[in-house]
Amino acid sequence: MQPVFRFAPSPNGFLHLGHAYSALLNAHLARETGGRFLVRIEDIDTIRCTENRVTACLEDLEWLGLDWEQPVLRQSTQFGRYRATADVLAARGLLYPCFCSRNDIATAAGQATLRDPDGAILYPGTCRHLSDGERAERLGRGEPYALRLDMVAALASIGARRFGWQEVSGARLENQTDITARPEAWGDVVLVRKETPTSYHLAVVLDDALQGITHVVRGTDLYEATAIHRVLQTLLDLPTPRYHHHALIRDKEGKKLAKSLASTPLRQLRAEGVTAGEIRKRLGFD
Q1: pLDDT value for 253
Q2: pLDDT tens digit string along 189-245?
Q3: How many domains, in total, are found in the chain?
Q4: Alpha-carbon distances, residue 228 vs 47, 72, 94, 203, 216 (angstroms)
Q5: Fewest CB within 10 A of the end CB: N or C in the chain?
Q6: 259 and 286 housed in the same domain
Q7: Are residues 58 and 23 located together in one domain of the fold?
């Protein structure tokens, strides 16, 4: 089977060196393995992912010297497909509506707050325990809600089996390590947001399957999230890619680069006279 790689940025800001490294690495590995290289635009946040930022993202990738297959899949055009899959899971009794705000969750969690692998407060299951009558009443009032995966029910539906994935490494990803996943550490994750008919987790799993992605190469900040993706792949009978979680590019203080931290974008470096060749060399792709 021909390897298929993808770089899938979320254009809610401009690309920085961390994005450049991940994109260049995916393209490099595709060449080394005789594979295909795709770009996917993960723009489910239709407020922050503006057309200007989508255009800027693709321009930056072209400036780096990257070439990818057309057409580019944009998640904002796939909402119907995502919601249809969520409806299938809901019909199986695996999703439930959650009306809670962040403040509601923090209050319900109380002092002894458990945390998920990302460090966020672990959802205490408040709305999972609503009676059918109360749930119907709140839905009838038109209260906004998200849809959460009932993780206990999901794992029970799958049955007792060892969850995990193959983490690959090496110049051509020839080395592999079997990783045991801990999906229960995430609790009842959101699969459909209040304002959007999907979530990152649901959309990325469906799109990787749709596009035949064989190798998911992304940063270590998404390492633990792979457990959620393995649960969804199993529930939906989807193929399992191999995974490679690369080290993150960090600033001088050791913090990972992030749009939320206003890390210097590629287009600013370009405006300052830095060349694409210099960027590639700095990141180890000369």
Answers
A1: 64
A2: 999 999 999 999 999 999 999 999 999 999 999 999 999 999 999 999 999 999 999
A3: 2
A4: 25, 25, 14, 12, 14
A5: N
A6: yes
A7: yes
Q: Provide the CATH number for the domain around residue 206.
A: 3.40.50.620
Structure tokens at 143: 């209260």
Residue range 107-123: average pLDDT? 87
User: Is 137 found in the same domain as 170?
Assistant: yes
Q: What is the mean pLDDT of the chain?
A: 94
Q: What is the DSSP string of 55-85?
A: HHHHHHHHHTT----SSPEEGGG-HHHHHHH
Residue/partner pairs of 126-133 with CB below 8 Å, 24 or more apart:
126/98, 126/100, 127/96, 127/97, 127/98, 127/99, 127/100, 128/96, 128/188
CA distances to 6, 15, 188, 286 from 265, rounded to whole Å, are: 21, 5, 35, 20
In terms of Cβ atoms closer than 10 Å to its own Cβ (0-12, 13-18, 19+), residue 95 is: buried
CB atoms near residue 126 (< 10 Å): 16
Question: 89 and 142 in one domain?
Answer: yes
**Which range is least confidently modeled, 111-115, 152-156, 251-255?**
251-255
Choose among 100, 99, 116: nearest CA to 108: 100
Nearest to 154 by CA among 98, 230, 210: 230
Residues 85 and 192 in one domain: yes
Domain range for 120 is 79-212+219-246
Q: What angle do CA 102, 120, 192 make, to 5 degrees?
A: 60
Same domain? For 259 and 123 the reply is no
Tens of pLDDT, residue by residue over 237-279, are 999 999 999 999 987 766 666 655 457 899 999 999 999 999 9
Assess whether 96 and 237 both reside in one domain. yes
The predicted model scores a pTM of 0.94
Residue matched to tokens 């064989």: 214
